[in-house]
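hi! just following up on the protien thing from before. the input was this:
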Amino acid sequence: LAMFALVMFLSQLRVHGVSVSVGSSANVTTETKHLRGRCHISGFLHGKSGDCNRDHGSVCCKDGHRYPQFRCSPPVSADTPAILTLNSFARGGDGGGKSFCDNRFHKDTELVVALSTGWLRLDGKRRCNKMIRINGNGRAVLAKVVDECDSVYGCDAEHNFEPPCPYNDVDASPAVWKALGLKEEIGVFKITWSDV
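and the predicted 3d structure came back as:
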C-alpha cells in the first residue's frame, strides 16, 4: 500500500486482512501528521498474542512484533477513499466486545460499521450513531457508525488480540458487504464514503 511510502520496509504483516509493510527508520515520526491526505505513523504497539477469533480472516497479533499506530485519518470529503474490511459486531463475533458508540452487540444483518480512530472521534466531528454513505462496486449503501476500528490500541482481549487498524479503515458488517454486492471471501475492498 502507498500509505507507507515514506517508511523503510523491513517486514510484512497483515492487519485486519490488509497487507502492509512497516519498519523502523530515522524518518518515522512519533507525532501525528497529515501528508497529502495521508497519516504518518504516530508510534508502534508491541504485539502480544492471545485468544484471537480468526473469523472473517482476522489477523492475530504475534508476540514481539511491532504494529503501526495512527492518531489521525485523512480529511473527510464527498468521496473519501478508504478500505472496506469485514467484521461481525455480533456477540461472539470477531469484533471483540460491545460496540463503542452504543455499548451493545449488532446482528450481522444490520447495516453497521466501525471507523478508524481518526474518523470516529479525533477529527473534531463525532460520528457515533450517525449515518454514512458507502460507495463501492457500482452501488451505494447507508450504514450506521456504531464502533471504532481502533488505530492506536490492539493486541488485547478488548480488540480480539488483533493489531491496530489502518488509518483509513471502514470495518463493515456482512449486511453492508451484501448490500454492495461483495463476496465476503474478498476480505478487503477499495471504497469511498462520506457523511450523510
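Helices lie at 117-122, 174-179.
The longest strand covers residues 139-149.
cheers
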